[in-house]
Write a structure and sequence with these properties.
CATH architecture of the domain at 15-217 in chain B: 3-Layer(aba) Sandwich
Structural class of chain B: alpha/beta
Strand content of chain B: 15-25%
Structural class of chain A: alpha/beta
CATH topology of the largest domain in chain A: Pyruvate-ferredoxin Oxidoreductase, domain 3
Largest interface: A-B, 70 and 58 residues
Number of helices of chain B: 11
CATH superfamily of the largest domain in chain A: Pyruvate-ferredoxin oxidoreductase, PFOR, domain III
Oligomer: heterodimer
Distance between the termini of chain A: 57 Å
Largest sheet of chain B: 8 strands, mixed
Bound molecules: thiamine diphosphate, iron/sulfur cluster, magnesium ion
Distance between the termini of chain B: 79 Å
Strand order of the largest sheet of chain A: 11-10-12-13-15-14-20
CATH class of the largest domain in chain A: Alpha Beta
Largest sheet of chain A: 7 strands, mixed
Number of helices of chain A: 20
Order of helices and strands of chain B: HEEHEHHEHEHEHHEEEEHEHHE
CATH class of the domain at 15-217 in chain B: Alpha Beta
Radius of gyration of chain A: 27 Å
CATH superfamily of the domain at 15-217 in chain B: Thiamin diphosphate (ThDP)-binding fold, Pyr/PP domains
Number of strands of chain A: 22
Shape of chain B: globular
Strand content of chain A: 15-25%
CATH topology of the domain at 15-217 in chain B: Rossmann fold
Chain lengths: 614, 346
């Protein structure tokens, strides 16, 4: 029988599930996410994996988390800090206590706070018992005991029973947020249909968690987050790396070019390789090379052969690809290089995010070696960004760097995915066979300054290309002083001309003239947008523009910059775009930087913007 | 004596068709000229269309090769020709792909890619021009230079122990391993043809004289006066014999190869019969590698050390794709984009 409860309506909520790597927090989080999506909330999620694969159980190093931000209004980020924190053990509390709002709710599994767990987490006193959590509402549940009790008559080992703990928490949260559980019941049926005991155990514990909320007196507040108003259409949930992989397959299909990926595993880029390796029915060829150099050079070989050639990596791997990037530039062949940025330098922070490879993409090569750069701004936007990178690359016969980052690569959001028929065709044409007596000119150019893509197997097009400086049109080796200068300028002009074939820069929110423009790029999009929107609502006349095209910039960018008194450029690095903008447009752009391996919080951006306006 | 063969498209090609209009920039007398000539001689014999042949090189004197050969070609970056070629072959299995590399290019900076190419067994031909020196950078010792080599960067002699390229290739599970030399055109042509005919990665080490920085490095094997005593030509199914009058032979004493003299009582019947399909024997004979100055050294073998068949990487790659398509049907983009779970907002 249900007790008297009150239900609060919330516009948005942030929940974080945290526990030991073995506690199933990722699964719990994704189940609640699916549930919210199906219910009609807008949302954003971010998983927080331990750096070590098998860190000792119960330690801070072994904590795995999943953060979900959902709402009845538009959601742009996985949320700054959480309203509800679920902790399965002491270590999970210890590593997440900084991430919870004052007055927030902590749901703690008391079994994870025994002497042994406290010691593993290096905690001298039990936070659930002392007064360190007085600023929060703490709901203590012995999840382990409740789970076992729900399963007394089930024929399963203790270990297997304990594995159902996360379902108890999930059930309890479903109760707390007034949710139906159909999607999870269906999920469990699909997953454990062949193991009736395990299925029964999970279902029972899920329901036990729900009824625990219904029947105990300890807790009598429930919440409701209504549906969001979202554009009509069919949605799915998508993570950034998934979207990148899908975008590549789509670009392959819409250009008619076979897709070749040369890659060497590296966090946080490997999932693109994993996904593409599954898509064999699309004819995708994935080549796990012996290192990043072979990864990119094999892609160069495939491109020479007429494939849509791609290489994926993260910062350290990007460093290894440098020399080959120069080769691709001089060869003037298509190639898409994807850098899913992580914290650097060196091995740095492999599982944390950063935007610190922009300079590397801009300048990180020997010689004058300009390469176009495209950046993705959200998980689903990785699809559009990679599609655009492919388009530029094959239509302009040029290598293109796509920058994404660990934050959007692993983050997820609802995506109103396009239909194949809605995607713009990527038109390309290989050079045609030559008639007897005609001489093929591999470096002849069209109005884009693009040269012919002449693939082996085409009669009369036999030609040699290489890394040595060449003469325009003939492609013959040339060491002439004037020729080198001419070719350097020509390759630069070729990059600059891309600006004629990309959309103009738009203002994302706010007025088209005013006091302040917040200019961003890449994965900070959601946080910047949320901050600027909120300040707009508060009455501040500030604007937000976000760059997709980092090189060349859209032609009207200079004009836009001049429409505001001040320009603020927040970045997850030590100030890179800001220096490029100052250099190119001679404006006094201001930097705002965070270099902690973490995304921006909306709140800190709002503070900074207010301060800037003073 | 260039033989002519009709290509599949009915054209008859000659060595001349494979020359380009580019001025050849190798030093006069360089061994690379002979190798270029032998390659141009055998290319018309392969029955291939000119446009279906691709030469990929790295960086080095040897790597200038593609500029002088009228096929598709790429002069890539130092050490990476093998990797460029792997990607090309994976993407376009129907092409005839040739790699031209040097001892520095293929065994030093690009050593890693070379061994990985061989284990994967792409159907390609690796021509490793071994001059035991860095030619293009003007004479530093290379990973195949013998110990004590005095070169620009080793004024007091090299303390590096050299690679044995043949043993390295065998260790990487290459399916075709052979050695030849610039100064024996007939043998080199034969080895080039065999490399081409082998379905899988062919590793052909070619001793090449750099007359500027390492002249006569292989003279014991190439010069008339010593060749017969120092070079051992392996012939399938034949006993291993050498010497001015073929009077010397190799006999296996257990696993130990010994030199015997047929004129001094040894019997031909006791000699080691060359079997290029025998991995154990290939491993033993690949180790005939002592410098000529070493007392009691064995002769240096030339010819095919080992040949076996194993599925090629590109064939397996294509098969896997075909299998998935036949099991699941061709991929539908709309289905892929939708994923496994969708919801509708009205
Ligand atoms: C990344 C890089 N490092 C170094 C060089 C300089 N370099 C060019 S060729 C070469 C050695 C070539 O030796 P080898 O492969 O034996 O070719 P050879 O000239 O003897 O035919 C070196 C060190 C280079 N071009 N690129
Ligand atoms: S330096 Fe040596 S290898 Fe290079 S072209 Fe001259 S002779 Fe040939
Ligand atoms: Mg050399």
């Amino acid at each position: 029988m249900a007790l008297e409860t009150t239900t609060h309506d919330l516009e948005e909520a942030v929940i974080k599930f945290a526990g030991d790597s073995g506690d199933g927090m990722q699964l719990t989080g994704t189940q609640f996410t699916t549930n919210s999506a199906l219910f009609g909330n807008d949302l954003g999620t971010f998983p927080d994996f331990p750096a070590e694969i098998r860190a000792p159980i119960g330690t801070v190093a072994g904590v795995s988390g999943f953060q979900l931000h959902f709402g009845s209004k538009e959601i742009f980020t996985p949320g700054d800090i959480c309203d509800v924190l679920v902790v399965m053990n002491s270590a999970a509390l210890k590593s997440n206590i900084r991430n919870i709002k004052k007055g927030g709710i902590i749901i703690a599994n008391t079994a994870g706070f025994d002497a042994k767990n406290l010691k593993l987490a290096n905690m001298t006193s039990n936070a659930l018992e002392d007064d360190s959590l007085t600023n929060y509402t703490v709901i203590k549940i012995d999840v382990t005991r409740m789970t076992r009790e729900a399963l007394t008559d089930i024929q399963l080992g203790m270990k297997e029973k304990d594995r159902c703990k996360n379902m108890f928490v999930l059930g309890f949260l479903y109760w707390m947020f007034n949710r139906e559980m159909d999607n999870t019941i269906k999920f469990l049926n699909d997953k454990f249909g062949k193991k009736p005991e395990v299925l029964e155990a999970n279902l029972r514990v899920l329901k036990a968690g729900y009824s625990y909320g219904d029947t105990t007196e300890t807790f009598n507040t429930r919440y409701k987050v209504e549906k969001a108003v979202m554009p009509a259409g069919t949605y799915r949930s998508i993570m950034g790396n998934q979207a990148t992989a899908l975008g590549l397959v789509a670009a392959s299909k819409k250009s008619g070019l076979p897709l070749f990926l040369g890659s060497y595993p590296i966090t946080p880029a490997s999932d693109i390789l994993h996904d593409l390796a599954k898509y064999k029915s699309f004819g995708v060829k994935t080549f796990q090379a012996e290192d990043e150099i072979a990864a990119i050079t094999s892609a160069i070989g495939a491109s020479f052969g007429g494939s849509l050639a791609v290489t994926t990596t993260s910062g350290p791997g990007m460093a290894l690809k440098t020399e080959a990037l120069g080769l691709a530039t001089v060869l003037e062949i298509p190639l898409v290089i994807i850098n899913v940025q992580r914290g650097g330098p060196s091995t740095g922070l492999p599982t944390k995010t950063e935007q610190a490879d922009l300079f590397q993409a801009y300048y990180g090569r020997n010689g004058e070696c300009p390469i176009p750069i495209v950046a993705a701004q959200s998980p689903s936007d990785c699809f559009n960004a990679v599609y655009e990178a492919c388009r530029i690359s094959v239509q302009h016969m040029i290598p293109v760097i796509l920058l994404t980052d660990g934050y959007i690569a692993n983050g997820a959001e609802p995506w109103r995915f396009p239909k194949e028929s809605e995607l713009e065709e990527i038109k390309i044409e290989f050079a045609k066979p030559m008639a007897e007596g005609e001489k093929f000119m591999p470096y002849a150019r069209d109005e884009k300054l693009s040269r012919p893509w002449a693939i082996p197997g085409t009669k009369g097009l036999e030609h040699r290309i290489g890394g040595l400086e060449k003469q325009n049109i003939t492609g013959n080796i040339s060491y002439e002083p004037e020729n080198h200068e001419f070719m350097v300028k020509l390759r630069e002009e070729k990059v600059e001309r891309i600006a004629n074939y990309i959309p103009e820069q738009k203002i994302d929110s706010g007025p088209s003239k005013g006091k302040l423009l917040v200019l961003g790029w890449g994965g900070t999009y959601g946080a910047l947008k949320a901050a600027v929107r909120e300040l707009n609502e508060e009455g501040f006349a500030i604007a937000h523009a976000h760059l997709r095209h980092m090189r060349p910039f859209p032609k009207n960018l200079g004009e836009i910059l001049n429409n505001y008194d001040k320009v603020l450029i927040p970045e997850i690095n030590n100030g890179q775009l800001v220096k490029i903008i100052r250099d190119k447009y001679f404006i006094d752009a201001m930097a705002y930087n965070k270099i902690q391996g973490l995304p921006f919080f909306k709140s800190e951006l709002m503070d900074k913007i207010r301060e800037t306006l003073k | 004596m260039a033989e002519t063969i009709t290509a599949t498209n009915g054209e008859v090609l000659t060595a001349k068709d494979f020359a380009t209009d580019q001025e050849i920039r190798w030093c006069p007398g360089c061994g690379d000229y002979s190798i270029l000539k032998q390659v141009h001689t055998i290319l018309p014999q392969l029955g291939l269309k000119q446009e279906d042949i691709v030469f990929i090189s790295g960086i080095g004197c040897s790597s200038r090769f593609p500029y002088y050969t009228e096929t598709f070609g790429m002069h890539s970056i130092h050490g990476r020709a093998t990797a460029v070629a792997s990607g090309l072959k994976a993407a376009r299995p129907e092409l005839s792909v040739w790699i031209v590399t040097g001892d520095g290019d293929g065994l030093s900076i690009g050593g890693n890619h070379t061994i990985h190419l061989l284990r994967r067994n792409f159907d390609m031909n690796v021509l490793l021009f071994n001059n035991e020196i860095y030619g293009l950078t003007k004479g530093q010792y290379s990973p195949t230079s013998p110990e004590n080599k005095v070169a620009k960067s080793t004024p007091f002699g090299s303390i590096d122990h050299p690679f044995n390229p043949i043993a390295l290739a065998l260790g990487a599970d290459a399916t075709f391993v052979a050695r030849s030399m610039d100064r024996d055109p007939a043998h080199l042509q034969n080895m080039l043809l065999r490399s081409y005919k082998h379905h899988g990665s062919s590793f052909l080490e070619i001793y090449q004289n750099c007359n500027i920085f390492n002249d006569m490095a292989f003279e014991s094997y190439t010069e008339k006066s010593t060749k017969k005593d120092e070079a051992l030509f392996m012939v399938q199914g034949q006993p291993l014999v050498f010497g001015a009058n073929n009077e010397k032979g190799i006999k296996l004493d257990g696993f130990k190869p010994v030199i015997v003299n047929l004129e001094e009582g040894a019997s031909k019947d006791d000699l080691w019969i060359h079997d290029e399909h025998d991995m154990v024997k290939a491993n033993i004979i690949s180790r005939f590698f002592d410098h000529v100055d070493v007392e009691g050294h064995l002769p240096r073998p030339f010819g095919v050390f080992y040949q076996t068949t194993r599925p090629t990487y590109e064939d397996m790659m294509s098969q896997q794709i075909a299998q998935v398509i036949s099991a699941k049907g061709e991929g539908k983009l709309d289905k892929l984009l939708a994923g496994s779970e969708t919801w509708v907002i009205e």
